[in-house]
Amino acid sequence: MSLAEQTRWLDATDQAALIADGAVTPRELAAAAIERIEADNPPVNAVNMRWFDHALDGADDAQDGPLRGVPFLLKDLECQVKGQPMSNGNAALAKLLPTAEFDTELVARYRRAGLVFLGRTTSPEFGSLPVTESVAWGATRNPWDLDRTPGGSSGGAAAAVATGMVPIAHGSDGGGSIRIPASCCGLFGLKPSQGRISMAPNHAETAVGVNHVLTRSVRDSALALDLTHGAGVGDVIRATPPSRSYVDEIGADPGALRIGLMDHNPLGASLHPEILEAVRGAAALLESLGHRVEPGYPAVLDDTSTRAHYGMIRSPNMTLTIDAIAAQVGRTLEPDEVESFNRAQADAGRGMSAVDLTAAMAATDRYRREVQQWWADGWDLLLSPTLAELPLPIGTCAPDPDDPWAALFRAGDFVPFTPPFNTTGQPAISLPVHWTPDGVPVGVQLVAAYGCEDQLLRLASQVEAAQPWAHRIPGA
Question: What local confidence, expressed as pLDDT, does residue 308 receive?
Fold first, then answer.
């Protein structure tokens, strides 16, 4: 058996151990991952930028961190790597492929961890949709069912990890974009607390987006969080540091937790039967592990008006994004260089007043406090579906120039459970606990109080031990 196959399903922790023990070199491990990418990427279209020669040349000089030599992929969105290109899923930037002049703070931390960067994974344009299909790079497909989406916006990262191309990949989450593809692809996905991982130097931690990774094992996610958390220069939100290493939470007793169950769609539509089976099965599993699960959730989650506030904050940000790209390429972007739903958001942003934006921000501030009060009132965790539907068929959210908002509204129906906790800044996970009879993964979401990633990791490792998922692989 080739090294590529021997190491395909080893998690990042085990791959790092091979290097530390001298069983393989970083260059050999990188070459094995490259072999898998070249063989497995064509049907799923997960890796859109390949830095293979650079990775091989630099692998043995990888920094001596806990993940030294482990192959890694970075999402093609807002995560600059010095000397390497990034397109943000946009057609104009995909043509130009401008290279970055600096590493973001997170990339610098990945380097210190010892990770070897092999390239980038696909993202929808500007990360706007929970599916990974862009005009610039085409559709990325779910390895469990090639007719379905792997989710988004970190869909390329999820597809790459689910197929075993790499054991761990960078993702970002501004409305569910780590948790959604984790659910679609049968992976573990943690969205950290707002301010847990620095967004320096490009963005403020006050925004809804956060960065972390997609993994097969809970311990890999915990280790990556140990290696990347903490404030950077100028961070305005700084999550309280953990009392100990996140890796130390793996296998630790979570205690008997009080968990609220939300098993209905807040938008009023029905849930897919397999989604309902997954969340109720998870509730039964948690009860069998000694936790108290009962109906309960923040009532404000049923208030659908919050979707409008979320959109009003996104729109002027999209205006700035598109204007910045126009300045970067030195001209006005052509109509076919921005997808219609993003142009619609940008146009809406141009029509908003400062009062409109301030009112939306004030409404989300009230919403944040009202949601978080539920945890302050004595609940430990909230259990819900991650998604309202099974992974959507490819093309469901295709841009329609005649109805540019249609893709966004359809996307919102797919993901009513994840965006609220970007607004509140709370940590949340998607756990792979269910597969349909056709072999399609279904995740469930658990949400903790702000700053309590440790609690989520303890419980996730308990579930992983009780109902393992690592043996489940696409096509097996």
Answer: 81
- pLDDT for the residue numbered 53: 97
**Which of these is catalytic: 123, 128, 134, 153?**
153
Report the C-alpha gap between 9 and 420 in whole angstroms.
Answer: 33
Q: 123, 177, 193, 221: which is the annotated catalytic residue?
A: 177
DSSP one-letter string for 304-360: TTHHHHHHHHHHHHHHHHHHHHHHHHTSPPPGGGS-HHHHHHHHHHHT--HHHHHHH
CA dist list (Å): 440 to 145, 235, 248, 277 = 7, 40, 32, 13
Residue 290's alpha-carbon distances to 146, 178, 436, 447, 448, in angstroms, are 38, 28, 26, 18, 18
Cβ atoms < 10 Å from Cβ of 72:
26
Q: Has residue 278 got a pLDDT over 90?
A: yes
Q: How many CA atoms lie within 13 A of 200 on its CB side?
A: 18
Q: Which CATH architecture has domain 3-301+368-395+424-466?
A: Alpha-Beta Complex (3.90)
Q: Is 95 a catalytic residue?
A: no
Burial of residue 460 (CB within 10 Å: 0-12, 13-18, 19+) is buried
What tens digit of pLDDT does each residue of 441-469 get? 999 999 999 999 999 999 999 999 999 99
Least Cα distance to 279 among 166, 144, 58, 444 occurs for 444
Task: Give pLDDT, residue 476.
Answer: 78
Catalytic residue among 75, 128, 198, 340: 75
**pLDDT tens profile 115-145:** 999 999 999 999 999 999 999 999 999 999 9
